[in-house]
Design a protein that fits this description.
The complex is a heterotrimer of chains A (409), B (54) and C (394). Chain B is an all-alpha fold. Helices cover 65% and strands 0% of the residues of chain B. The termini of chain B are far apart. Chain C is 75% helix and 0% strand. Classes of the chains: A alpha/beta (409), B mainly alpha (54), C mainly alpha (394).
Chain lengths: 409, 54, 394
């Protein structure tokens, strides 16, 4: 009996601290990023890792950032070498307006990527609300949604979506069908399911994860992203939550002052042309080559927009509905001065706006329609990306969606 | 040297609290070594058993 | 689920030990619970492998039918030898078919643990014939065959010893001691198999002879042979200790399989210390029988010749059991020759007789033995095959 007591005590001595310590180590990633949880625009390895996004949201908010999820794509990019002062990272980061944005989504991320992302993260999205930037170009005839999906697909987010009990089997099945239609291997789409059914394998992987201190976070912890250039690496650089974000008392933004400031800044940064195209791109011949080449791609034969992207948009709304996430759909405009020259005339563009608004209205989803700003020169800095006054307007819609119209929540 | 080893073995296999203490130390050391090796050492997967194949 | 490999196995084992401990401490027999737990573990072992499960079920049906058919004949006094022979052939056939199928890369009637369950079934059939087993309870027999802890690779227990343990009860302090020893054996075994086995395996890096000076090339080969030898020992001894430990928790004192084999002073001593339950099984049911039968028929001129032939048959069978490949057959023949040679040397050499009690002689014997054993390891691991193949083709 003495021996048994000795052996059992020894097991307790070793196992109890491990059992107590291990749950803490599941947040090992959170600890690792504690000093620098913030990026202006997290790069692909980060945005495609739901574990990372969760940890970053948790850490940032634990440090008083109060960030909210904004889903989008390349519009989060920064004008180079200038800085648009009203970009959310500047607007919310350098002023204490009581909240910040977590800009989630990379180039090629379209409706299906975002549907999966919401399904993966639904339990960790602050306030159960997301702002969703939806782009008309995703739907255009030239666009290749299958290729975009394959280039942006996150297997980890997909696994988390499949594990989310709130998303119905029907919706999951529809997402799987679309993934296969977009060229994801069936083994990848259906492979995870058989695995998760077996009790033995669940225990095995559970124990492995429990002890898995060695899970390799190198990719998400690295600020280097291979296909990013230097200025974009700067956006992805990890840093502490900006000091300006929490300085002093939280205030409500002065929207009129912001608009006036950004009109002036826009005029300054687009001084080379009348269309409101930012100087460095225009001066380096970006616009000229766009103008010479648009008829190669901004054109259509039968239908201007693709059905499959509308289906994916509906899937995104399905996932939001099932997981209890309230979206604000932002219908992103195009620069009229540029796009009017193409096959996508105002009438053709109106088809898209009308259809998207009809879908949102039918489903009772809030949306903001920026089509009236298509001819505001400082709303977009190029054909499709928000610029000076554009960001002010978007920030206002984001702010009011999360903080209420009075700035009180 | 041999005498010491014999003495330790004698205590180890005796039904005394000193023996139990040795059992405690041995079990804790073995378990700690196992946990360290499997979880922290980074030595990789244990080699597969040979004789299962026969 | 793989026994002793998957983390889940240890979780299930820990859970399964709890009721066994309750029964053990409260002075109840663990047998029926142990049988049920074993069947549950075997279900997990075969998992979704329906073929394996069916092959196992078929074997179990054959073994039970053959054994109790033979037993009935012996109990009735009829003692029909043809029934014994039929029963023996019936339980050995699946293993033979499986081993031959494996040569052609086909899995015929195979399942994880087929070898060890066959050894056990054969032991019972032979001991019934020898009147050593006069009666046997069906549950005891079934439990003996399916007891999960040594199911996949031994140690090979004996039915009468097993049934004694299975049917006894323990006092609380006896069971506490058994449980403590069981846990300790599990820990030691895990360190052997998972830590030391892995470390030695890491340094086992066989390659054909290179272009370097002969002594470095030879040194590298010797190093690999030793690394493999230690790896195999810690792997298999570790596994065996874990199987023993888990058995103890269920009140079954499964016998040990290894006793410091690398301290052996001759190859016979080595086989008394290495994979002991297999070597004693082979000794009892192959070697002794072969020698007895040969002596009766006067096949050889004296006992030494008979013994040498017996060793050869015994170890060729042992090699063949590992697999019908050149490496394993050579491995068997190697030990067959060595065992005979050792016998002849020790019986005929005046030098040996004169010095065998002296320390320096024992050290020399030990040194020769361990190198002979490690050369055997090089044959067993296929390292020799690689080297010889390299010399022939390269």
């Amino acid at each position: 009996m003495k021996r048994l007591i000795a052996v059992v005590l020894a097991i307790a001595l070793i196992c109890v601290p491990i059992a107590m310590g291990a749950p803490a180590s599941s947040s090992a990633l959170e600890k690792k990023i504690a000093d620098a949880p913030y990026q202006i625009w997290p790069a692909k390895a980060r945005s495609n890792s739901p574990d990372y996004v969760r940890a970053a949201i948790k850490q940032r908010n634990a440090q008083g950032d109060n960030c909210k999820v904004v889903l989008g794509t390349s519009e989060f990019r920064w004008v180079y070498p200038d800085t648009v002062s009203s970009h959310p990272a500047n607007f919310f980061g350098n002023n204490n307006y009581g909240m910040d944005t977590f800009l989630l989504g990379q180039p090629y991320c379209q409706d299906l990527w975002h549907a999966i992302e919401v399904g993966a993260l639904s339990e960790d999205i602050p306030d159960d609300k997301v702002v969703f930037f939806c782009g008309i170009t995703w739907f255009m005839d030239y666009q290749n949604p299958a290729k975009c999906f394959r280039l942006s697909f996150s297997p980890e987010a997909y696994a988390d979506l499949m594990a989310n009990p709130k998303v119905t089997d029907e919706t999951k099945a529809k997402i799987q069908e679309k993934m296969i239609a977009y060229g994801v291997e069936e083994a990848e789409v259906y492979g995870g399911e058989a695995k998760s059914e077996n009790l033995v394998e669940r225990i095995n992987s559970g124990i492995q994860e429990f002890f898995d201190d060695s899970k390799n976070w190198d990719a998400v912890l690295s600020d280097e992203e291979d296909d990013w250039n230097a200025p974009e690496r700067e956006l992805n650089r990890s840093r502490p939550v900006p000091e300006g974000r929490t300085a002093g008392q939280a205030q409500a933004p002065d929207w009129d002052a912001w608009l006036a400031q950004e009109k002036a800044e826009g005029a300054d940064q687009t001084s080379s042309n009348e269309m409101g195209i930012y100087n460095s791109w225009y001066e380096n011949g970006g616009y000229d080559s766009w103008r010479d080449g648009w008829d190669e791609w901004l054109t259509f034969t039968d239908e201007p927009y693709q059905e499959t992207e509308f289906e994916d948009f509906e899937l995104f709304l399905d996932v939001c509905e099932e997981t209890g996430i309230e979206p604000l759909v932002v219908l992103m405009p195009l620069k009229g001065a540029m796009i009017d020259q193409t096959d996508y005339t105002p009438e053709v563009r109106a088809l898209w706006y009308d259809r998207m608004k009809a879908i949102c209205e039918k489903r009772g989803v809030a949306y903001v329609d920026y089509s009236p700003y298509e001819y505001d020169p400082y709303f977009l800095y190029d054909m499709a990306h928000f610029g000076w006054t554009g960001w002010v307007q978007v920030n206002r819609d984001i702010y009011e969606f999360f903080m209420g119209k009075e700035g009180q929540k | 040297m041999r005498k010491l080893a014999d003495k330790i073995a004698e205590i180890f296999f005796s039904d005394t609290w000193a023996g139990a203490l040795l059992w405690f130390v041995a079990a804790a050391a073995l378990l700690a070594l196992l946990v360290w090796f499997l979880v922290y050492s980074g030595f990789g997967e244990p080699a597969a058993p040979v004789y299962e194949n026969f | 689920m793989n026994f002793y490999i998957d983390p889940a196995f240890y979780v299930f084992l820990a859970v399964a030990i709890v009721p066994a401990a309750v029964l053990g401490f409260s002075g109840h027999r663990i047998k029926y619970y142990g049988l049920a737990a074993s069947l549950a573990f075997l279900l997990l072992l075969f998992g979704e492998n329906v073929e394996g499960m069916l092959a196992f079920a078929a074997f179990l049906a054959i073994a039970c039918a053959a054994t109790f058919w033979e037993l009935a004949s012996w109990k009735s006094g009829q003692k029909a030898l043809w029934k014994f022979r039929c029963a023996l052939v019936a339980v050995i056939a699946p293993l033979v078919v499986y081993k031959i199928g494996a040569v052609f890369d086909h899995n015929l009637m195979g399942f994880l643990g087929i070898s060890y369950i066959t050894f056990k079934a054969v032991q019972v059939i032979i001991e019934i014939r020898d009147d050593l087993i006069e009666d046997m309870n069906f549950a005891d027999y079934l439990y003996f065959l399916v007891f999960f802890t040594p199911f996949t690779s031994g140690p090979i227990d004996r039915s009468r010893r097993f049934a004694e343990d299975a049917n006894r009860t323990y006092t609380a302090s006896e069971y506490a001691d058994l449980l403590a020893r069981g846990i300790m054996l599990l820990l030691v075994g895990a360190v052997y198999q998972k830590v030391l086995g892995t470390v030695f395996h890491h340094y086992f890096t066989p390659a054909p002879l290179g272009d370097g000076p002969w002594w470095t090339e030879l040194g590298a080969q010797v190093k690999d042979a030793y690394m493999y030898g230690f790896y195999l020992f810690f792997d298999f001894a570790g596994y065996s200790l874990m199987a023993m430990g888990a058995s103890y928790c269920f009140g079954i004192k499964t016998p040990r399989n290894f006793r410091a084999p690398f301290l052996a002073t001759d190859v016979r001593d080595f086989w008394d210390r290495w994979h002991m339950t297999l070597s004693t099984w082979l000794r009892d049911f192959v070697f002794m029988r072969a020698v007895k039968s040969a002596t009766r028929r006067k096949l050889f001129k004296d006992r030494l010749h008979t013994a040498c032939a017996g060793y050869m048959a015994n170890f060729l069978l042992m090699g063949a059991w590992h697999g019908l490949t050149v490496d394993y057959l050579v491995y068997g023949a190697y030990y067959g020759v060595l065992m005979g040679a050792t016998d002849v040397y020790q019986k005929k050499s005046a030098f040996h007789k004169r010095h065998k009690k002296e320390n320096w002689y024992k050290v020399v014997q030990w040194f020769v033995t361990i190198n002979v054993v490690m050369l055997g390891m090089a044959i067993f691991s296929g390292q020799m095959h690689t080297v010889v193949g390299g010399l022939i083709h390269g």
